[in-house]
Please model this.
Amino acid sequence: MQIELQLSPVGDGLLARDCHHELASALYQALSRSQPKLAEELHDGNHRSRLKLFVFSLFNSDPKPFAAELPDGTRALKFGSRIWMRFASIWPELVYGMAEALQKQKELNVRGQRFRLEEIRMVPTPDFRPTMTYRPFGQADFIVCRYQKDGKNYFRMPDDSEPGIPSCADLIAGNLRHKLLRLREIRPDIFENLMSIGGLDAAAVAALPIQVEFLPLMEGRAYRTRLTRIKGINVRAFRAPLRITAPEAVHCLVWETGVGSMNSMGFGTMTLGRQ
Model:
């Protein structure tokens, strides 16, 4: 389930360029004020995990945002008068709860900048086929492929191919399988509904066939990269379309939880590409 928020800046519409954590905090604070039990469950209950099973996009605007600076010299973006973003989750109560929380609050406060809520709309779920093409949502969404080795984080790009290290495509496929396994733990009802699509064997999730192929971003350019600093950590991300061949249950996860790592920090929100 995806929803789209339509917003407008109350002030000057300035936000730090690297505002993933601040935007995540703004959403969580809105949920905490209106739906404290739901927020507590998300933060401290069964859903507490690196795999939060929700995703949100960064801000997009018309006119397009342009580079600026905050008063302290921090790199920033100045957004236009019409702003939109998306929020999605496989957990329907969370989507409805977030929508209700934002409607009550009537605005989103991000790092002291206020953005008035103009409208919330439901985004129609596509009719999924075995092979689907996706692209990162909007003007500024990127994908993170992260793996850990010896307690350290490493980030992969689509064309990285060092021997003995999982490829970016393998990391995305593995992440989707892990999400299904996590869903089986915390929401067996949703998991069973997904498995019933296509008559999938619930015991075979770990070996579910998922093929990920990267498509060129544009002629002569395979992908675009971005280095973002989040809570003191440099995060390498990329932007490129994907072609995914998998059972319908997996496509539901792509649509409602995003792809790659750090979805709950504003990475990996997907929309349909050219089919």
Q: What stands out?
A: Helices lie at 20-34, 36-44, 92-105, 168-186, 188-196, 248-257. The chain has six helices and 17 strands.
